[in-house]
Each structure stands twice: as structure tokens, then as C-alpha cells.
Amino acid sequence: MEAHLPQAAAPALSPTAGGERIEALDVVRGFALIGILIMNVEFFNRPISELGSGIAASRTGLDLIVAYIAQFFVTGKFWTIFSLLFGMGFAVMLTRAERAGRSFLVPYMRRIAALAVFGALHHIFLWSGDILFSYAVAATALLIVLYGRAKWIVTAIVLCVLTGLAPNFAGMAGVPKESLPDLGAFFGFAGGLAFFGFAAWWLRGEQRVKRFNMPAVALVLLVAGAIALIAGIVLNVLPNIPREPRFVLPVLGTALLTLGLLTRKYHEPVSSRPWRLGIGVYCFSFFMMTAVGAAVYMFPNKPVTPAATAAATAPVKAGDAKKAEPAKDSPEAKAAERAKRLKERQDKIDNEVRVLTKGSYADGVAMRLANFKEHAPGEVGFATILIGMFLLGSWFVRSGIMENTRAHLPLFRKLAMYALPLGIGMGLLGSLIAIRAVPGSGGADGYQFASGLLMLGNLPASLGYVGLVIVMLHSQAFSKIRVLAPFGRMALTNYLMQSLIASIVFFNWGFGNFGISRPAQMGYVVCVVVAQVAFSHFWLSQFRFGPMEWLWRAVTYWTIPPMRRETPAAVPAAAGVH
Q1: What's the CA gap between 381 and 289, in Å, rounded?
Q2: Exposed/middle/buried for 404, CB within 10 Å: 0-12, 13-18, 19+?
Q3: Residue 370: beta bridge partners?
Q4: Model confidence at 40: pLDDT above 80
Q5: Sign of torsion over alpha carbons 133, 139, 145, 148
Q6: Helix (H, G, I), strand (E, B) or coil at 78
Q7: What three-state secondary structure class fits 240?
Q8: In the predicted model, is pLDDT for residue 319 greater than 50?
Q9: So what's the pLDDT on residue 180?
Q10: pTM here?
């Protein structure tokens, strides 16, 4: 896994010149921003703690119809498109650097660092639904996948594991564990690094096993899959085994065996590996979610009676505590633990609603800061999914497709005609199973199964939407869609501005309109989009790029780009995804 970075033999990389821009990227980015706002506005009017719970149970009538349309035609599709665009922007910057023989890594690392800061500040000071920080983490992981060396990845994994075990070592030395910080997140970091390292091996490894005439990475997948499948079969035969491993291991084994067979057949050519790995990574994650969800839905646990739950959660006398305590793995004990988690979740939701509807701005900042500290370590897990989209988006540019979209219109037409209906259809099929989660059901309500179908469908749907926009861009009847290009060129500014406007309109420290109906939310979206499109056209008629784009480029290229259009040096916005 050797790094192959361009040699720094020319002046430092600089922002993209006007003639180098790819208009299609700007238009698709502008289109995606509309979908992002449709998706995000709900959670400026609903606790972010309910994210991923589906359509709120309180929705009825027109409210339910609008929520349903947004859920199955928008939700999940547009962050996926933005992830593709981010990968495309990465590839544009890398391709330009290679063609000019300029340094790439250092400017891009500054770019990632700036994005992480923007995301953290956005999360803490405006809204907890930020995705910029997630992109920064995933962009770092992308560098590991593309350029990481095996010895350094393994060393980092070992260090993370040892750090996670530090409290145990300290406990053995007599140091009270309570006095030590919780370092459990480092095990997650180690798992993420292992995943990124394996992805790097799949993408760049050339080792073959001559005896079996297959790539070594394919053999590893096949062996791991066989072990998991056999273990799953054994666990399903043994009595008194919890259902989670009985479901997960056979599904994992089947998935790994399938990936191994596909790798054996489709590991070559090298030029196709990025899109194949990207699709494989995305589908693996959500296939697991779908298959396990289907198993839990079809083979639910035996229900625990209310009387047993009440008995498990009722207080007992001190002398009878040992006698009354249910077995750790008994249905009653699990029911009590589930009831406890539900109460904690509801308390968190109630607190968020209280802060957003009655609290001050300082209260909101304090709540979001605590939320950021809690969730930031988990971004490594989300990065394993984003990596797939980044690789797929990068391939679209590196293959030349996005640089000459007119020449590839047949591909985009196929995506619009076949991938879009397939993706939307998978979500609609899932909606026949469940449209919302039932708290405490443990997946027996079918919502995990339905969500898995929705998420699997988001990939073809997002590609279909991109294909549709490109076809419209090149058609005479719909060519005016390019009006979205300036909106997309200022995507970072407009994205953050959307959060600022929404927090003022909906939160208590502003106008306090939290909780408006979904139809009213769509009216709000129309007003904001029209205003931002007009503002973007006006701004870019006077300036070369948006204010946040200017700041991002200043950090990325470590220079002060000229801002006004009359400035002699032609330095408009770079083609990277914002």
C-alpha cells in the first residue's frame, strides 16, 4: 500500500480558473441544496433526537401526505448526492494537481481541517444536524484509503487498541477506574481504521494466490464469510443463544461470501475498482441493516407481558432484592432495560423541545456542545459509508464522465430511466411495511427492515436524480435548470445560511415558530430557495465566489484570493464540493 502522490515540482496549487469549472457539478450541487433544505427543515421543527425515526405519529391528513412524499422521494437521497459531489470535488482538485505537477496533499489537508472547524462551529452554534464535520472525517479516511501505507495503518490500530485498554491496565496497577477518562471510543477508531485499511488493500492491492487463481483479498473475504456462516449455523442449533448473533452471523457470512465471489471475478481492471468498491461498501452496510431487520421482523421475540415488565421494574425491599432480581438475560430483565432506555430517550427529546421552544440561545449552545462531544467520536462509523460515495463520485470525474457530460448522455438517460424508479420503488416498498419506528419494539415493528430498503434504494435514486439533472441540463426544454449553477457555486455559504435563517425563524431565541406543519415547512423552503437563488446570482455578479467559499479557499491555498470581479487576476471559485 505505497503512496503515489504527485511530486511538488511546480508552484503551489491555486483555485480553479473560470474556464476550468464543470458547470454540471454546479447545477447538480444547486439541485441537491434544495433537497437538503426539504430534508433539514423538518428537524428545525422536530427534535434532532428523533432523527431516523421515520414519519412522526402525530402526522395526519395533508400533513401526513407531504411528510410521506418528503420521506420517500427526498430523505436520504440528497446527502447521498452531496457525498458523490464531495468525491467529485476531491477528484477535480487531484486531477488538476497531477496535470500541473503540483503538490496536492498539504492543501487538501488544510481544506479538510477548515471543513472540520466549519462543521464543529455550525453544529455547536446553529444546528445539531450538521454534516460538514462528518465529511471532514470521511475525507481524512479517504486519504487513508487512497494513500495510506499498511505499516502505519496497523501501527495506528494497535495504538488505538492499547489506548482503549489503558483504563484496564491502570486498574490492574491499583488506579481507580472512576478517576480515569472513558477511552472506549478508541476501540471504534481502531475498527474504523481496520475497515479503511482493508478498503485500501482492496483498492490498491495486487497480491494473488496462484493456487486458487484469485486475488488474495478475495480469498480473505471468502474464508471470513465461510467462518461467519458456519458459526451462525452452529449458534442457530444451540439452545438459549440470544437472537442477535443468530441473525447477524449468517447474514454477515452470506454478505462476505458474496463480496468474495464478486471480488474474484471483478477485481480487474484497476480503473474500475473505485466505483465497484464504492458501490460495494455502500450496499454491504445497508444490506446488513436490511437483512437483519427482515430477520428480526419475521422472527420476533416472544412478547413480555405487562405484568412481567412491571414486576421487573417495580421497587423491592432491600432484604428481598437478591431474591427478586431477575436473571440477567431473562425476558423480564431485558424488558426492564428497554424501559429504562426508552425513558432516557424520551427525557432527551423532552429536554431538546424545552430548550428550543423556551430556552435562550446560550441554553441551545450548551445543549449542542454536549451533543457534539457525545457524537463526534461516532463519525468514524458514518465515514465507512461516506467513503463509498466519495470513491464513486471520484470515479465519475477521473473517468472523464463529468468533464464531458454531453458525450455520456446515454449513461445519464439510463440512470434517470432505470436507477431512479428502482431506488424510489425500494423506498415505497419499505413504506408498505412501516413508515415510523415504534419505540422499544426492538425492530419487531418492521421499521429497521423498511429503513434498510429505503437506504439501499437511496444509492440508485441519487444516481438517477443526478442523471435526470444532467439530461435536463442538455435538453432545450429544460436547459433553464442552469439557473441553479450560481446557487450551487455558493453551496457552503447557502448551506450555512439556511441553518442561520431556520434557527432564527423556528427557535425560541428568534421568532419561535418551532413545530409548524409539513405543508407550511414546504412553503418556507420555496421562499428560502427563491431568495437564495436570487441572492447567489446578485452576489456572483459582483464577486468571484461566496464569502464562505472565499474563506475556505484562503485556508486551502494559504493565500488571499482576490474577491471582486473587477480584480485583474481571474480567480473564481474552485470546483470542489462545498
Answers
A1: 14
A2: exposed
A3: none
A4: yes
A5: negative
A6: helix
A7: coil
A8: yes
A9: 66
A10: 0.89
Cα angle: 11, vertex 15, 20; to 5 degrees: 105
Distance CA 418, CA 410 (A): 12
Q: Which amino acid is at 90?
A: F
C-alpha cell at 208: 494473488
Joined grid coordinates for residue 357: 421552544
Classify residue 376 as exposed, middle or buried by CB count within 10 Å of its CB (0-12, 13-18, 19+).
Answer: middle
d(CA 141, CA 382): 11
Residue 18, φ and ψ in degrees, nearest 5: -55, -45
For 92-145, write each residue's pLDDT tens digit: 988 888 888 888 899 999 999 999 999 999 999 999 999 999 999 999 999 999
For the record, the C-alpha cell of 364 comes out as 441551545
d(CA 562, CA 107): 18
C-alpha cell at 416: 434517470
Computed over every residue of the chain, the mean pLDDT equals 88
Q: Where does 362-450 show beta strands of DSSP type E?
A: none
Q: How many residues does the chain have?
A: 578
Bridge partners (DSSP) of residue 54 are: 436
% the chain with pLDDT above 70: 87
Identity (one letter) of the amino acid at 488?
A: G
Extract the C-alpha cell encoding 254.
452470506
